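User: I'm preparing a small set of examples for a lab meeting where we compare how different chains pack in three dimensions. I only have the primary sequence for this one, and I'd like the structure in token form so I can line it up with the others. Please keep the answer compact; I'll paste it straight into my notes.
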Amino acid sequence: MIAVPFGWPLRAPRQTAGKNNKILWVARSGSGPLKIVANEQTTRRTVTVVLPGGPGPSIVNMPAPGCWRFTLSWGNRRDTIDIRYFSTPA
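Assistant: Understood. Below is the structure token output for the 90-residue chain.
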């Protein structure tokens, strides 16, 4: 799986007005809903997101800044990707 972020940097807990945390998920193979179990590496906070349409364009927001390890599963495939979310500017 490849994660292609748009609107870099990704922000948490939200993007600035008029922008979204957009990620294009590109899978070499497999299909079905994309389940993301995200763990923040410092606090160990866990968030689960399901994208019913499977890999493709999405908006994925995390509740806090940090380095998030995304464990991805779709069909019979599985992968992990680390994605950094930055603080929202004041």
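A couple of notes for your slides: The mean pLDDT is 93. The chain has one domain: 2-87.

User: Perfect, thanks.
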